[in-house]
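look at this record:
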Amino acid sequence: MDALAGLLDGPRARGAFLLRMIMEPPWSVRVEDGAPICLMCVTEGEAWIVPGTGDPVLLRPGDIAIARGPEPYTVADAPDAPPSARIGPDGACSTLSGEPLAETMRLGVRTWGNAPDGGTTVLVGTYRMDGEVGRRLLDALPGLLHLPADVWNCPLMPFLDEEIARDEPGQTVVLDRVLDLLLIAGVRAWFSRPGAEAPAWYRAMGDPVVGRALRLLQNDPAHPWTVASLAVRAGVSRAALARRFTALVGEPPMAYLTGWRLARAADLLRETDATVEAVARQVGYSGAFALSAAFKRVRGVSPQEHRATA
């Protein structure tokens, strides 16, 4: 598994919130849905994204922005436009005083706005739950990522524009997978930029020693690894591996392995009906009790509680 594959082995939208927003100035929408991540693509006109902290970003046709939650932000026709609508959890839309707007601004299937022939069209795709996007991916991204059209060229945007308003059997699954692919394409383009600031563990993949150790841990987390056995496979001493790994990745090898095992366990608990015992053995724990103790210690909830939130 290469570094990027390890980072992206996680996005799994499930009934994601997808919407085509058509607006005519003046307009401004405050997004307070608490979602872990949201993708926005402009197909016509222009739109500003104003984060809670940092500079506003202008989106033009072909641009994509990825906003990392749960911090709120504003999408508007101008960076200083006062919000007139609010998007809450699960895409619920209302005025700032709480009056619902879902019906009055509905323009068709997955289409919403203040004018059917408005000059600005924005495609919006939102992951609703943290478990749908790996924590390692979220931690690797800035609060607001912007890729102009001249930096990336993705054929998925026209496809999403065509599919988002269709109402056919299985359409929700189709849109979920397109959203996953769009997120992966966007993140890949982001880390491929000249001077991109990738996370430490991502850069460490290029190191001949630490990169090999990382791939061993990622590819086979169920193996009973120790620093000594990992060092043998990496071709260095135990002390040299521990020192080099910690310096490049930011944490010791076994701490990294624990985080990776629990991340894989979290995905398996959400995505399969395997027992906690079976999941534990798949990711390298001796049984359900050992996994539960580690899960509770690191994530603050039991595996059963984590699964229940899905």
